[in-house]
Design brief:
heterodimer, A: about 100 residues, alpha+beta, 4 helices, globular, B: about 425 residues, alpha/beta, Sulfate adenylyltransferase, Rossmann fold, 2 domains, five-stranded parallel beta sheet, binds zinc ion
């Protein structure tokens, strides 16, 4: 069985969308919930647990969406910036190194 | 006409005539109470908790713990208790048979006729009410935080609370609520229990329950209403602020997603116990007293963590259904299906692989990221009002912060006694 993956939804507001377009990464957005753009960065179980520990406001929505929610906006901005820099959504190891 | 509440008992408001109040409290020992007790004093005095006339004595408590009933046999699931420490009892010089005056915000709130003072095994209480004795369960934590002695006896309100804006239109006690239902001509009213700002999943829970409740009734004129009954009590950091909850629920009516003919919003003061199934039974009693005929129950009603199975509450309700005067309406989850292009029920749509479920938590994440969700997911009027509430009441945030807890205007205050 493939390893379980837990998404962090980075909702793409206008500011984030501009950055993506500039970097030629607009195609990385997925569409969810009737037209919202989102970039999904996936955590494995260990990364999920570390995130929940390091950022106490974060919550794993185990009942409905199976995603990691309620990370502070500035934390999501940082993850987003690494995504843009690396042109990849596989960035959590690098991001979590600093914590 | 007698108004009959839970357990077939008449609802009687226990409120002193304002002319008599000053004389009745004169000379009584004054004991300040915390917000949970003040909330419950209101629940008792206005008949939200009918047939309770005061804080529980030991026989009632023991019967609730062991049989989920009051000692007279009426179904009752949650202990309603007044606690004090031995130190406080001796400092105030309080003994059985005394009558004292409970104060809140330094003003007389209620008269408490203390019939008995007793102890009870808190762990046994937790095990029965919450199905666990773990102190990390928030209801157990609240129970263990009770001081060691319990005081049972009747409560009579001295001074009605002043409900502060913007909550004032939403405090509608049982007798008044029943009058309003009659004025509207509703034959059936279904309760929606909430502590949330509504997204369209919630909206459709209500709409689905409205259809279920309507059933075989004639449709020439509106006969069925939804009552949103928001629970207002202790707040945790990160919750939506109370102002945003109550005003956005009502906004669904004001903005036409519902209308005056089928929707009303109100509040009940109550500190959630997160007792899951037992809290579901308590909600049935509470909403019976408010005059409702039906009650919505979704999955894991009033649960927390993984303590209860998704349908435990439904199963427990079924065991006492014959004795309840309210019909449960069970709700399946609503979700967005991109294939259907609409909000649909998981009991209806079969595009299972395409379903996009959403939760209040997910919506909060979207809002915190500075994105305005599409109207199919979150109504623009609700979104705008959440933002307005953040500025007006939330010190910049629609969610509870330390600053909000410290500086907010209380939902109600107790004014000084006139005369
Ligand atoms: Zn579908």
């Amino acid at each position: 069985m493939a390893e379980e993956k837990y998404p962090i939804n980075i909702w793409v507001n206008e500011e984030r969308y501009e950055k993506l377009k500039e970097a030629g990464l607009a195609h990385m957005c997925e569409e969810m919930l009737a037209g919202m753009k989102v970039i999904r960065v996936y955590a494995n179980a260990a990364q999920r647990d570390k995130i929940l520990k390091v950022f106490p406001t974060a919550k794993f929505d185990s009942a409905t969406t199976k995603s990691i929610e309620l990370l502070p906006r500035n934390v999501k901005d940082k993850i987003f910036d690494v995504v843009v820099e690396r042109k990849s959504v596989d960035v959590l190891d690098e991001f979590l190194k600093d914590y | 006409m007698a108004e009959i509440g839970h357990g077939g008992k008449e609802i009687v408001e226990r409120i002193l005539d304002p002319k008599e109040a000053p004389a009745k409290v004169r000379g009584l020992k004054q004991v300040p109470v915390r917000s949970q007790i003040a909330n419950e004093v209101i629940g008792i005095s206005y008949g939200f908790f009918c047939p309770l006339t005061g804080f529980m004595g030991k026989e009632d408590l023991d019967s609730v713990v062991k049989r989920m009933r009051l000692k007279d046999g009426t179904v009752w699931s949650i202990p309603i208790l007044f606690d004090m420490s031995d130190q406080e009892l001796s400092d105030y010089g309080i003994k059985e048979g005394d009558t004292i005056c409970l104060t809140y915000h330094d003003n007389p709130m209620a008269i408490f006729e203390i019939r008995e003072i007793y102890t009870y095994d808190k762990e046994a209480m937790c095990q029965s009410v919450f199905g666990t004795a773990e102190s990390k369960h928030p209801g157990c934590a609240r129970t263990y935080a009770y001081k060691d002695k319990f005081l049972g006896g009747d409560i009579t309100l001295v001074t009605p609370p002043k409900i502060n804006p913007p909550f004032d239109p939403y405090f509608i006690p049982p007798l008044e609520m029943r009058k309003r239902f009659r004025e509207k001509g509703w034959q059936r009213i279904v309760a929606h229990q909430t502590r949330n700002v509504p997204h369209t999943g919630h909206e459709w829970l209500m709409k689905g329950a409205w259809f279920q409740t309507y059933a075989e009734l004639p449709i020439e004129k509106p006969l069925v209403g939804v009552l949103v009954n928001a629970i207002i009590g202790e707040k945790r950091k990160g919750d939506y602020i109370d102002e945003a909850i109550i005003l956005t629920q009502d906004e669904l009516r004001k903005s036409g997603y519902f209308g005056d003919h089928n929707h009303m919003t109100s509040l009940t003061f109550w500190d959630m116990r997160y007792a899951g199934p037992k809290e579901a039974v308590f909600h049935a009693a509470l909403r019976t007293n408010l005059g409702l005929t039906h009650h919505m129950y979704g999955r894991d009603h009033a649960g927390v963590g993984t303590y209860y199975g998704p349908y435990d509450a439904h199963h427990l309700l079924a065991t006492v259904q014959d004795e309840l005067n309210i019909t449960p309406v069970y709700s399946m989850n609503w979700l967005y299906c991109p294939h259907c292009g609409e909000i649909t029920s998981e009991g209806l749509c079969n595009h299972k692989n395409e379903w996009q479920k959403f939760s209040g938590t997910l919506i909060r994440s979207i809002v915190e990221d500075g994105v305005k969700p599409p109207r199919l997911i979150f109504r623009p009027e609700v979104f705008d009002l959440v933002m307005e509430c953040a500025e007006k009441y939330g010190f910049g945030s629609p969610f509870v912060t330390d600053e909000y807890l410290a500086k907010r205007t209380p939902v109600f205050t107790i004014p000084p006694l006139a005369g």
